[in-house]
Amino acid sequence: MKSFLLCLGVVLMSMGSSYAQTATLFNAQVQNTMDSLNMYASLWMHTLSFIQDSNSGYTGLTPYRTDLQEYIDEQTEQYETMKDVAGSDKLRGAILGLLKFEKQLVKKSFIPFEELPQGASKSQVNELKTNLRAEAAGEGSLLQAVNRARKEYADDNHISLIPPPPAKPVNTKP
Q1: pLDDT tens-digit readout, 77-112
Q2: What is the pLDDT of residue 138?
Q3: How far is the C-alpha of 145 from the C-alpha of 95, rounded, in Å?
Q4: What confidence score (pLDDT) does residue 8 get?
Q5: Three-state SS at 129
Q6: Exposure class string for 99-124: b at 16+ Cβ within 10 A, else e
Q7: pLDDT class for 173, splitting at 50, 70, 90?
Q8: ∠136-139-145 over CA atoms, to 5°?
Q9: Which of 54, 34, 56, 40 is nearest to 110 (CA)?
Q10: CA end-to-end span of the chain
Q11: What's the rounded Cα separation, in Å, for the pair 86 and 153?
Q12: How many angstroms separate the CA atoms of 74 and 53, rounded?
């Protein structure tokens, strides 16, 4: 299993910015970007909840935020420098709009939590949460724009956006 994961990692790293060479692969790359953004942000949010519950220092959020920022920067560079894939300009523009929004959201709304002192009051934390929600309000329309562009791109390139059914579990009984 370890050798498989190592081989997979080498293959994925060697693909670099040339990953999306077909419409189907480009569509999958966009979906992967969106899923990864969600995962990184969820990890940060879960860590925030844990820190609040345990009353530990908010600097514990830093590694999760920096991972998210680095991912956003890497993806932004990749989408900005990649060549068109079967009419992908509109979809690339939509995902770049989302990535740029997320970058600003992280700067404006995630970093202030890290600056809270250990044992910060509930009102201090709630004020930052209110600011985060207000800043994040525009995210929904950008996600809708990406989804509309993905639908149009899929229709133009005859790609199904419906995922395949899950694999059936292997029967381990003798």
Answers
A1: 999 999 989 999 999 999 999 999 999 999 999 999
A2: 92
A3: 8
A4: 45
A5: helix
A6: bebbbebbeebbeebeebeeebeeee
A7: low
A8: 170
A9: 40
A10: 23
A11: 9
A12: 32
